[in-house]
Design goal:
Elements lengths: L15 E4 L5 E3 L1 E9 L2 H15 L5 E6 L13 E7 L2 H8 L2 H13 E9 L3 H4 L8
Antiparallel strand pairs: 1-2, 3-5, 3-6, 4-5
Length: about 130
């Protein structure tokens, strides 16, 4: 069961979004949450309330999987969730909001969670070099 809603209009993954403050580039950020359930009933309360809070903040759900396949190494979690936000400020508005903090009490009570914030890359960083004219 994916506890996360989606709001249209967020950036395509990995792409900048224009100029930020003092000429800084505003970059898509990704949130990777890895969960091991400790009290499923508490987590399920969190999941039931998550969509209503999440959709207010412009994030996108990219993946939510309770049965990911481990290709290499050991993974001792039960669920992974991947979100994106247009920029870190958008993520912070969500994560630090009173609404999210209130429902996060149930997530913390119901799952041991590791949350990572990952910076996106610019299209130029992945572009192939241009061929020299002969």
């Amino acid at each position: 069961m994916a506890p996360i809603g989606v709001k249209a209009g967020a950036n395509a993954p990995g792409h900048g979004r224009g100029a930020g403050r003092q000429g800084e580039s505003i970059m898509t950020v990704y949130v990777v949450a890895q969960l091991a359930f400790t009290r499923r009933e508490a987590y399920d309360r969190y999941a039931a309330n998550f969509m209503g809070v999440f959709r207010k903040f412009g994030g996108r759900l990219l993946a939510a999987d309770e049965h990911p396949r481990v290709i290499e190494g050991n993974w001792e979690r039960e669920k992974i969730v991947l979100l994106s936000f247009p920029d870190e400020a958008g993520f912070r508005l969500f994560f630090d909001s009173p609404e999210y903090k209130e429902i996060a009490k149930d997530r913390k009570a119901g799952a041991d969670t590791v949350i990572l914030l990952v910076q996106g890359i610019t299209p130029a960083a992945t572009a192939e070099p241009k061929a020299k004219a002969s």
